[in-house]
Structures are given as structure tokens and as C-alpha cells.
Design goal:
CATH class: Alpha Beta
Largest sheet: 6 strands, mixed
Shape: globular
Structural class: alpha/beta
Number of strands: 6
Number of domains: 1
Radius of gyration: 22 Å
Order of helices and strands: HEEEHEHEHEH
CATH topology: Nucleotidyltransferase, domain 5
Distance between the termini: 68 Å
Number of helices: 5
Length: 209
């Protein structure tokens, strides 16, 4: 059916080698509080950690009439637009469908990396608690990595955009070598343990032990 073909296309998009293997991705986003416990993602960027990685940018348009919202909500949205430069009605995905859409994408992911615990908690509220979400901050990321400007082009004249794509590219350029370093250390530790195990077996085989 349509749902099966949609899921198959998602898997094909996120997997360059096989269509049934979940992958690790990095996600960054920005948005605003719709209510005290409902965070709306306005811009969300997802990139695979694989080589030649596919990536996906979501910009969600919010059609709500600000005149019919509370003062607090209007202020939150106005502050968001002022900071990020993305108009409320800009985008091509509906805000009301974002949870269902991102949950479908999340089914393709083994691990989702985000910047810190705040981002983790917000994204978990969108895609659900069953998804494995890890934080770069736990590995020591402080946001200081600089790369060429990778802004997505949706931010208008805002000076301090904190574009999700720009931030994700910075984090990815930091995360991949960090994970390689960790993997090498684990491999080295395993080699040491394996050598110790061989040494112990050799000592045990000696006739006078």
C-alpha cells in the first residue's frame, strides 16, 4: 500500500547500501513554544553520518492567525521570527503533521545525535521515547567548531540565524572524528584485553604453575 511504499522510499533515501539497515543520524532544529508543554519545530535538519550522506531539511509552515492566539504565544512567535528570520508561513510542510512525519523518518534511524539534553528532550517529545537519542555534549561538544557558512537560505536578513543546517554541519564535522577516536580507543582496549587473555592462557599451560 501507500504506507509501505512511503516507508520503503524512506529507507532507500537514508540507506546508501541496503534498505533494511537502520543508520545513525545527526539532527538539529529550532522552533518555539506553542504552549508551555508543546514545542513546535519550525526548521529541522537531518543528516546521515554515513559517507556521501543523504540529508533532509524540513521547514514547517504555521498557518495560525496570531490575532487569535494569546499574548504570550504571540510574543514567543515574534521573538522567534526576529531571532531566526524565518517567517511563520514559510515552508512546505504543515506544522500539524510534523510529529507523524518525523516519527516515520525516525523509524529508519538507529541512533539520533543532538547537541545537548534540552534538544534531546524536545526531539524525544516529537518522535517518541523509543528512539535512541544521544547528546554531543556528553562527549564534550561545546559548539566552538567553525566551518564555512552552510545556512539554508530561509533566514532572511536575520544577523544571528543559528540555522539548523549550519549548526548540524558544525556538529557533524566535530562528531565523526570524535567517534572514530572513541572506536580506536575501544579497539586498542580490546586488543590489550585479548593479549592479556592470551598471556594468561599461556601461563596456565606452563607445567610448573
Amino acid at each position: 500500500g501507500d504506507k509501505q511504499s512511503f516507508s520503503a522510499n524512506l529507507l532507500k533515501m537514508w540507506n546508501s547500501e541496503t534498505s533494511d539497515v537502520k543508520i545513525d543520524v545527526l539532527v538539529d532544529f529550532n522552533g518555539y513554544l506553542n504552549s508551555d508543554d508543546d514545542f513546535v519545530l519550525k526548521e529541522c535538519f537531518i543528516t546521515s553520518l554515513q559517507s556521501n550522506a543523504p540529508e533532509k531539511l524540513f521547514v514547517f509552515k504555521d498557518k495560525k492567525d496570531l490575532a487569535h492566539t494569546s499574548y504570550v504565544q504571540r510574543q514567543r512567535i515574534k521573538e522567534y521570527v526576529k531571532k531566526y528570520g524565518i517567517d511563520l508561513k514559510a515552508g512546505w510542510y504543515q506544522v500539524k503533521k510534523q510529529k507523524a512525519l518525523l516519527k516515520k523518518h525516525a523509524k529508519c534511524f538507529k541512533t539520533i545525535w543532538v547537541r545537548d539534553e534540552d534538544k534531546r528532550d524536545v526531539f524525544r517529545s516529537v518522535v517518541g521515547k523509543k528512539v535512541d537519542i544521544k547528546c554531543l555534549s556528553d562527549l564534550g561538544y561545546d559548539g566552538g567548531t567553525r566551518v564555512e557558512d552552510e545556512r539554508c537560505g530561509y533566514h532572511g536578513k536575520s544577523e544571528d540565524t543559528e540555522c539548523a543546517r549550519d549548526e548540524a554541519v558544525k556538529m557533524k564535522s566535530w562528531l565523526i572524528p570524535k567517534l572514530e577516536t572513541i572506536k580506536l580507543k575501544v579497539d586498542d582496549d580490546n586488543d590489550v584485553l585479548e593479549n592479556l587473555d592470551k598471556l594468561n592462557r599461556n601461563l596456565t599451560d606452563l607445567p610448573y604453575m
